Amino acid sequence: MANVVKKHSISSELAQKMVDAAVAKAREIGVSENVAILDDGGNLKAFSRMDGAPIPTIEIAQNKAYTALFGVSTQSFSTLSRATRRFWLASPRLRVWRHGVEGFQLR
């Protein structure tokens, strides 16, 4: 089957280990977070909402993870976002954060 491409994706075990590591780091620095891990297609693979994490940040965490799939630094993505505002209307899941999170100030 010459026209079939084999691709690799993150396993559920690795996705869970990544969530566990992120939750451990959040506890270490004393914050409550939502952690989202997506597969290469942008589908949720693993998720954790720590006790006390704000409800609105559930979707924000998933959208931030989706944006990370593009493999572009936040700095570069921020520059692109300022140059192409119309781009955001077509891609509502893409997010760039600067001094706060969509109306929520960072702690």
What's a concise summary of this model?
The chain is mainly alpha-helical. Helix content is 43%, strand content 10%.
What does this structure look like?
The chain has 107 residues and is mostly helical. Helices cover 43% and strands 10% of the residues. The protein contains four helices and two strands. The protein has helices at 12-29, 57-68, 74-83, 85-90, and strands at 34-38, 44-49. It starts with 11 loop residues before the first helix and ends in a 17-residue tail after the last helix.
Strand segment count: 2
Count up the helices: 4
Order of helices and strands: HEEHHH
What spatial form do the alpha-carbon principal axes imply? globular
Structural class: mainly alpha
- Which stretches are poorly predicted, pLDDT < 50 over at least 5 residues? 99-107
- Which percent bin holds the helix content? 40-55%
Mean pLDDT: 79
Radius of gyration: 16 Å
Write the layout of secondary structure elements.
Blueprint: H1 12-29, E1 34-38, E2 44-49, H2 57-68, H3 74-83, H4 85-90
Antiparallel strand pairs: 1-2
